[in-house]
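Question (not urgent): is this output format expected?
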Amino acid sequence: MHTVSGGEVAGILVAVFWAILVSFLAVALVRLAQTLKATTKLVADVTDQAVPLLADASAAVRSAQTQIDRVDAIASDVQEVTSNASALSTTVASTFGGPLVKVAAFGYGVRRALGGRREDVPAKTPRRTVIVGRTLPAQRRGKRNNWGNNPGKRD
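Got this back:
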């Protein structure tokens, strides 16, 4: 019989641990390979879907830029029209404003002078003006006093 020395036992133990370590590393490498394969497939799928989306987004951005350019042109045209209308309004007001007011005032004065009183409009009672320090004529003073003293009797 052969006896096993301590060095041989140590060698067998190292060989067993080494085999276990190699098998664990082999399992880890197989799983890593599967993960890399799945990741590669996922990246390929994302690339296949992202390329058309990026093309659509690029077309949308170009279209939006075209529309912004059109709106900018319209806004500048509106600003020009607004300034032209303002200048025209100022010109018309300065050219015709003063003379039209004068013509209207003249027409009003002529109507007032020539028209006189109309039949359908009652004449206005003349306004009475009070002047401080002036006394009323005797006739009017008496009427007013009688009316004020005798409320039942009115003239």
